[in-house]
Amino acid sequence: MIQTLLRRPSGIAETAADVLRALAVVGIIVASVGWGPLSGVSLAVVAVGMLVPRLLGLRASVDIAFGIVVLVAVWSSVLDIYITTRWWDLPVHFITNGLCAALLYIVLVQLRIVADPDSLPRPMLSTVVVTTALGFGLGVIWEVFEWVGHTFLDPAIFVGYTDSIGDLAWGGAGALLAGCCMTYLTDGSVSARAPRDSLTDTEA
């Protein structure tokens, strides 16, 4: 994993993904100065999270998509778009939670905490079920985080029963879709792989 993280980008798409990561780092400073330290911390968390697709060696298009989605999600929070446009959080939950659940599933498989689906009799079904469950779990954690933020940090953070159930439902649906698309997200296998450069050298 570390070799995959540290290797140089190969091609325009991987370079674009790294540019997004650089923008996230710049965003930490911008958000901290313009909107306060809490916003800066949010950008910092996102910047760290954006390293995960590269660490896992996922295809560049997935890396770019994840970077764009999480940046849109966090800046929507910083700019209060979730408050001014109340429906906006639903599609964001759908896409963000789906991608996060997929990445978490891949991490758990590569750490051998969850069984490699290729070793199971129904790999596709297993992948979809576990990814969906992880998505709902992440959704619950996020709702708890929102409650903590509302209660102890900023009362402006909106919480409510209908909002929470809607967020969980949309996030779970996104995780379900991500599970169904896992073959595309991982180039066919969620098992740990060597960096592409190493594979090329071996084949040569």
UniProtKB/TrEMBL annotation:
<dbReference type="Pfam" id="PF09997">
    <property type="entry name" value="DUF2238"/>
</dbReference>
<feature type="transmembrane region" description="Helical">
    <location>
        <begin position="95"/>
        <end position="115"/>
    </location>
</feature>
<keyword id="KW-0812">Transmembrane</keyword>
<keyword id="KW-0472">Membrane</keyword>
<feature type="transmembrane region" description="Helical">
    <location>
        <begin position="64"/>
        <end position="83"/>
    </location>
</feature>
<feature type="transmembrane region" description="Helical">
    <location>
        <begin position="168"/>
        <end position="186"/>
    </location>
</feature>
<protein>
    <recommendedName>
        <fullName>DUF2238 domain-containing protein</fullName>
    </recommendedName>
</protein>
<dbReference type="InterPro" id="IPR014509">
    <property type="entry name" value="YjdF-like"/>
</dbReference>
<feature type="transmembrane region" description="Helical">
    <location>
        <begin position="20"/>
        <end position="52"/>
    </location>
</feature>
<feature type="transmembrane region" description="Helical">
    <location>
        <begin position="127"/>
        <end position="148"/>
    </location>
</feature>
<keyword id="KW-1133">Transmembrane helix</keyword>
